[in-house]
Write a structure and sequence with these properties.
Length: about 240
Amino acid sequence: MELFKTTLIDKRQLAPDIWQFRFQLDNPSELNFTPGQYLILMIGEQRRLYSIASSDSLKDNFSLIVKLLPDGVGSNFLRSLEIDGRAFFQGPAGFFTLRSQDKPKVFLAAGAGIAPIRSQIFSLLEKEGGHLPELLLFWGLKRKEDVYFFDEFNELSEKCSNFNFWICLDQEENFLGLDVDRFRRGRVDQAFQGFVKEKRIKTDQLNDFEYYLCGAREIVESLNQFLQDLGVKKENIFFDKF
């Protein structure tokens, strides 16, 4: 794997414990990766894996979406890293990548698991020419204060008719003021099951789609089983292997 020397050029808080970090490539000056892959942050003898959250059209910089943990090695390093600070990464690596360019896709994400899926969606929709598949995103968060990227996903859906998304809040009681077309009460699996019950995807069409799952291990395992119980074949379900 290649070693990348980078400089932090932007650092911003998106939600209570979620931060976005943007790094400029110094040496080498260009990063080529497949959407869904990750980079390995090198902290002394420690290594931490972070999915690339930006489009593959960006070559000289990349973004990470990170949930900062109170005592995490990577979290402490990134929390203390100032603008213009240096960081070293290895990569890219990983096999959580799109299997086809033209088959319709359902993305089921939880929390910061949106990072590689954001990269995949933006990379696909920025491609010019050819057939653009239908892309459906169901993203699970806890409460409305945890929501980020709403405006950019909403703008993308208005610009690209083949992209649609729903944010699922499973611990929120007050939905007043939230866009009723974009927000759902409950978990990701409940929202998708409702989508199927409404026949927005018919049962006999479920295996026309590819399914990409990302989030905490136990959530991904649960979603995988949920989809198979619905009748989705294993070969149409993709996630990082643990």
